[in-house]
Amino acid sequence: MQLNIILAGVGGQGILTIASVINQAAIHKGLHIRQAEVHGMSQRGGAVQSHLRISARKIYSDLISRGTAHLILSVEPLEALRYLPYLAPGGKVVTATDPVVNITGYPNLEAIFAELHRTDRPLLVSAAEHARQAGNIRTSNMVMLGAAAPFTGMTPEELESGIEKLFHKKGADTIDMNIRAFRKGLELSQQQASDT
Question: CA–CA distance from 175 to each of 60, 79, 140, 178, 184 (Å)?
């Protein structure tokens, strides 16, 4: 098993939280992990991305080369578009549709979605709406993790265990709310799979 995952978004959207949950699940599974991050300034909505590499064998490089990412998981649509050159043939794009308009001249959303649709069946998720349904808009990153779960190499149970470990100090209510959000995202992914 070897997976290259690019996580993308803007500061404050919980990219590194997603990475931590996947890392927890991979470590529990006995896999090797390498991670490289670029942090933007959350106050200014700066870009944040993380290269996450998971393998059954030792990994020697943190960075993912262009054309080799099995999954691009983005919590912001323009950031998903930015990393398309990294996508491997047959790779999957899972992105939130909720824009963070942090630049002048932010492109038209329909144009962004049209480009994303040039990939193989991207999964576009209204993460904010599903997070509200789960109980808190701040759980939109867990909605996105749930939507991408089938492409992470981890089972939903392993990822939920990772959520529990990550949020255990915040109490049962926080854990439950994040798992509800995760399951909402997972349902969307399962619906897309059943539509084929």
Answer: 34, 28, 14, 5, 14
